[in-house]
Specification:
This protein is mostly beta strands. The protein contains two helices and eight strands, in the order H-E-E-E-E-E-E-E-H-E. The chain is globular.
Length: 191
């Protein structure tokens, strides 16, 4: 969708970015929580470019992820993917997944439903476009590289939601229950 935005508009909005400090994992409620979960991907290294295959310009698949270091006392794991550099006031949510087993593990490539697919996955929250699907990286041309933060949270209880949660409902459910966290950042831009 944003790939069609003229590069001049992207350049004009270059300074409009929420920033890394606005990510959910950087919320004051979680700053004291240990970053003891190692979150990695076999598709890209930390702070490196996300391959086109996992973006709006490619196959639109969610990337493979692996995590280790989940505490034994964890009762739930939640994955949240946000764009810290979207031209919005808050980070753009690309995925919320709240039904992960609370153990070391991972997600295979394409494990999250892609846009346009009719498939659903239990436990998905709503992305910023209000869909319960993976929202592939899609930064505006001319806006510069964006940082996509894959954040994982271990909780001391399983959150319950009446419907698929968005960012605000997720943050409310996480407060007071996160016992460990981890983050992997990948980049993608169209300059």
């Amino acid at each position: 969708m944003l790939e069609k935005m003229p590069a001049g508009i992207g350049r004009a909005l270059r300074s409009v970015r929420p920033g890394m400090e606005t990510l959910v994992s950087q919320d004051e409620a979680f700053v004291g929580v240990p970053e003891s979960i190692a979150l990695t991907s076999s598709a890209f290294a930390a702070d490196a470019e996300i391959p086109v295959r996992y973006t709006e310009d490619g196959a639109k698949l969610s990337p493979p992820l692996q995590w280790a270091g989940v505490p034994e006392e964890a009762r739930a794991l939640v994955l949240l993917v946000e764009d810290a550099d979207s031209p919005t006031f808050k980070p753009l949510v690309h995925a919320i997944l709240g039904d992960l087993p609370p153990v070391d593990g991972g997600l295979a490539e394409g494990a999250l439903p892609s846009p346009g697919s009719g498939e659903e996955r239990f436990g998905m929250g709503r992305n910023s476009f209000l869909h319960t699907k993976w929202l592939p990286p899609d930064p505006p041309r001319g806006h510069g590289a964006h940082r996509y933060a894959f954040q994982i949270f271990a909780l001391d209880e399983t959150p319950s939601f009446e419907r698929a949660p968005g960012r605000s409902a997720l943050v409310a459910a996480l407060r007071g229950h996160v016992i460990a966290r981890g983050m992997l950042v990948g980049t993608f831009g169209r300059d």
